[in-house]
Amino acid sequence: MPGAPVDETYDSMSLEEKKGILSQMASFLKALQDFQIPQSIQRYGGVTFDANSQIVSTAMTSVGSGPWASYEDYFTDRLQRGLQRADSNPYIKGWHANGVRKRLDAFVASGIPAQFKALESKLDMSIVHADFSKSRSSSRRL
Q: Is the peptide bond before 38 cis (omega within 30 degrees of 0)?
């Protein structure tokens, strides 16, 4: 999309311009929250169009896996992938020193299910814009 990254120009904007930008962002995020998920989306993850032009669940390209049967499965997979990356990090070496990794693995095995058991919204689905951040590397444009 044409435009400029907000992070590059936001600091130099007037207060009124900042209010306008933030208002647009809030409206956009609210529209995502209010969007009625089509019944053809059955799983958590990314979305795509099938051969019949229906919006359906698919893997998340930013994650490289999915779709997942539940939000808990999504969360667990993301955490496990992070731990796998930590295993190859030469500085933290998977957090195996001092028993940290054993505690993390125990949390993945029993802590995550316990947290999701009490979560009232665990079955809710919504559209999420995964690139809304203050990060300078963000690709959002207005």
A: no
- Using alpha carbons, select from 86, 57, 87 the residue that is nearest to residue 74: 57
Phi-psi region of 138 (alpha: psi -120 to 50; beta: other; left: phi over 0): beta
How buried is residue 57: exposed, middle or buried, by Cβ count under 10 Å (0-12/13-18/19+)?
A: buried
Q: What is the pTM of this model?
A: 0.69
- Give the pairing of strands 46-49 and 55-58: antiparallel
Two tokens at 108?
Answer: 């993945």
pLDDT one-digit tens code per residue, 45-72: 999 999 999 999 999 988 889 999 999 9
CA angle 39, 43, 45 (to 5 degrees): 120
